[in-house]
Each structure stands twice: as structure tokens, then as C-alpha cells.
Amino acid sequence: MTVDREQVLRTAAALLTRRATATMDEVARSAGIGRATLHRHFAGRDALIKALEELGLKELETALDDARLDEGPADEALRRLIASVEPSAGLLAFLLTENQLFEGDVYDGWNRTDARISALFRRGQEEGVFRIDLSHAWLTDAFYGLISAGAWTVHDGRAAPKDFPYMIAELLLGGARRSVKQ
Amino acid sequence: MTVDREQVLRTAAALLTRRATATMDEVARSAGIGRATLHRHFAGRDALIKALEELGLKELETALDDARLDEGPADEALRRLIASVEPSAGLLAFLLTENQLFEGDVYDGWNRTDARISALFRRGQEEGVFRIDLSHAWLTDAFYGLISAGAWTVHDGRAAPKDFPYMIAELLLGGARRSVKQ
DNA sequence: CCCACATGAGACACCAATGTCTCATTCGAT
DNA sequence: ATCGAATGAGACATTGGTGTCTCATGTGGG
């Protein structure tokens, strides 16, 4: 009987990721509950988005924890991160565009995750694993961008989900150019 | 007296890129015209978005032409493309998210540009310049993703506009990993 | 100089979505 | 079996944005 808040959030995430303009009613229906019930659990659309943001943030932080970013070579840590972030990629892609739209009052929890990812790139640069002519700020943004792009590529069926980690890690680490001496 | 349609479109693009939910009234104000006048030139919001889409498409096609994608090594052609697409990056980033939101009825003009970019990557693969373990579909999506990410990085002040071509081309071509044998 | 035409401002109806409320129903714990 | 709590359905007012219209203004071309 009682609504599973987590379940509702995941369903809403799946729908909103596909269509960000979905109605509260559509969100409710897709979760198999009534609109009134949805309102009982989330005060309004803003509250729903914020809850989604907290969910995505929590998932990203869990992925960051699981990846053990400060262990081993930085490039291997980055691979672990990409792999563990994969299940959340769709939600993160949605939240990324959502945040870009609402400039200013962005949930500042993202600063923490940004800092951790940025720190990984900085460590890699200091240890000579990552190139230093690309700022860690740009590498961080590119990381998010490729995660989003990969999420859409998989979502639209242009790549299989299982290829997600490989195609992102390889492009982000090695680039598109074929290495001549290899 | 007469409104410069092109000018209005560019102003609208600049505003909507920053805040996609901007009102028709805000769009009009930012262009320095009245809402009624805006409606006289663009039947409605949909028409405005569509006009923006056509503008972005036109600019991208111009950039594709200017880059002469079928001349010289594919990686150099890609560099030319990134450089010539830079002025349109913000608009393209906006249209990209806009299109992802409205699934289905996307302006099919993008298929042409997708095909041209994809063809560049395929040519590069056939000529041994680009690696073949990453599909040209993914490379194309990644190209768009990095263009968008770069546009936001520049927009938010985390990189200078002049660095745009370098940081994107270098990451897309060479990746983040520091080449050991170099 | 004058007239035609585009514009700006504002009024207006309309619509879609939101948020709130009520009430009957149903589920689940006791 | 019973009672309380949560739900679903629907009604309702409200709101913000949209699209249309009118009218006064002013500018530019002839």
C-alpha cells in the first residue's frame, strides 16, 4: 500500500531522462500512482527535481567511493569510476542539462563531486599519467560531457550498454587518433 | 525601424542558451523589441525554436563546408571542423539538449550533418588515422558531446574562448593520457 | 511634407499545468 | 473481522505563459 519513495524516484528519473518536460501527472502514472499521492510525497515539481538531484548526487558519490580514486594509477582509477558510474549515467545526463538550464541556484552538493573528480585528474597529472596541457577543469567537464554523450548513445541504441565503459574510457584516455607506435 | 530577423535570432539564441525556459516576453525584451513584434515575426515559441534550429543547422553546415572535411588527413580535417564550429558551439549545445528533450519529432536536417561528420570519422578509420575499436557513431556522438561540454566550460569561465579549439581537438584526438613514447 | 507601415504597449481570452481539497475505497496491521 | 491510515479519482481555483487583438506612436520612403 505505502508508496516506495525510492521506486517512485527511479521511475521518475527514467521518464524525465527521456522527456524532461513530462507532466506531474505523467510522472505519477508512470510510477503507477495517483497524482495526489505523488504530491503527498513531493510537495511539488521543484521538490521532485530536488529529490532526483539528491538521488543522483548520492549515486555519484557512491560511485566515487566504490572507484577508490586515490588507489593505484590514476588512469585505472578513472576506468573504475566510469564503470561504477554507468548505472547512473542516464540520471546524471538529465541532471546535467537540468542544472545548465537553471543557472545560479544549482544544488551546491555537486561542488564536492566536482572536486573529487578534479582531484583525480590533478593527481594523474602530478604523477605523469595525464597530460598537463589540458586543465583538470576541462578534463572534469569533458568527463561529464562524455558520460552524458555515452548515456544518450546507449539510450538511442547506437551502442550496447556493455560497451559503455570501454568506449568512454578509451576515448577519454586515449582519444580517437590511432597510435602510430603501438 | 524594421526588425532584423537574424539579429533577433542571435539574441534569442544567446538568451535561450543560458536559460532554456526563458519566456517569449524575456526573449523579446532581450532583443529590444516588444512581445507583439516578436510574435509577428515568429508565429509562436515553436516557430522560434524551429528558426533557431534552422539557424544552428545552417551554421553547422557552413562550418562543415569551411572545414573541407574530405581534404588532407582526417585528423587535420577534424581540427579545422572544431575551429570553424567554435562560434556556433553555444547554439549547438542548446539545440542538442533541446533535441534530446523532445524525442521523436526532431528536425531531420541533422541527419545530413551527422552523416557528414560520421563520414569523416569513417574516412579516418579507413585511412588508418583513427582507431577502429571505437565506432564512428560513438565518435560522432562524442564529438557533439565535447563541443557542448567545451561550450559550457567557456561559458562558465573555466576556460578562455581562444583555448576552445585546442582543448577539444587535443582531447578528442589524443585523449587525457600522457603518451609514454613521445 | 505626408502617408503608409511597422512597432510598442497594453488588454484580453485561453490553455495547460499546478497545487489543494474532498470523499470513497482499499490495504494492512492488530 | 475491524479500524486506522494511505491511496485513487476527481473537482476546483490559481497561476504563468501564450496567442490575438486594438490603438496610438513614430519612423522612413516617396
Give the secondary structure arrangement, pairings included.
The structure is a homodimer of 182-residue chains.
Chain A: H1 5-18, H2 24-30, H3 35-41, H4 45-67, H5 74-85, H6 89-101, H7 109-126, H8 136-155, H9 164-174
Helix pairs in contact in A: 1-4, 1-6, 4-5, 4-7, 5-7, 5-9, 6-8, 7-8, 8-9
Chain A binds a DNA duplex (30 and 30 nucleotides) through helix 3.
Describe the structure.
The structure is a homodimer of 182-residue chains. By secondary structure, chain A is mainly alpha-helical. Chain A has a domain at 68-174. Helix content of chain A is 69%, strand content 0%. Chain A has 9 helices and no strands. Chain A has helices at 5-18, 24-30, 35-41, 45-67, 74-85, 89-101, 109-126, 136-155, 164-174. The interface between A and B is large, with 48 and 48 residues. The first copy, chain A, binds a DNA duplex (30 and 30 nucleotides) through residues 1-3, 23-25, 33-37, 39-40, 43-45.
Short description:
Chains A, B: GO terms for molecular function: DNA-binding transcription factor activity; transcription cis-regulatory region binding. Helix content of chain A is 69%, strand content 0%. The first copy, chain A, contains nine helices and no strands.
